[in-house]
Give the backbone structure.
Amino acid sequence: MLHKLVERKIASKKVFSGKLLHVYKDTVRLPNGKTSTREWVKHPGASAVLPVFENGDVMLVKQFRYPLSQIFYEVPAGKIDPGEPPGITSCRELEEETGLVCEHMAYVGHFHPAIGFSDEIIYLYAAWGLNESRQNFDPDEFLQLERMPLHEAVAMIENGQITDGKTMACIYRALSWWHKHTPFPLNMKLQTG
């Protein structure tokens, strides 16, 4: 019965090609046999990582995001370079954005942030065994580091201070992963007091 949901591509035309994103307009055959168009964005994919210190603190970054003209709390993240495994992207972004390197990293899941108009996938990781290195921002990147207890970050999601999708997904998926795998002793209680 799932075949009754599938749309088939008939033709595809690239209508915009940028540094990061490419926009397409496709003609598709609908399940009922009629045709329609779909506009969608091709994205190289991204990786995000939640750095966790031994005392249960996490490191987030604050960054201004132009499309919404506001500052967001985010986990370190970035686009995947061609041929680069997502875990390597997370290690690279962790060091570039926070000046931290990790002894351990675990894949905790992935998600699709914009299924209505993009093929983007974001791979999620948790990192621990953190040591200082040096920050190495991209020339057009301006960040402020924010270290806080994990329970405060969760509270910020619940009260609407953290609204970035990859950050919410990464925090919750990392927390779920820890509850199942317990890679090292860490007090991960979500008490806010």
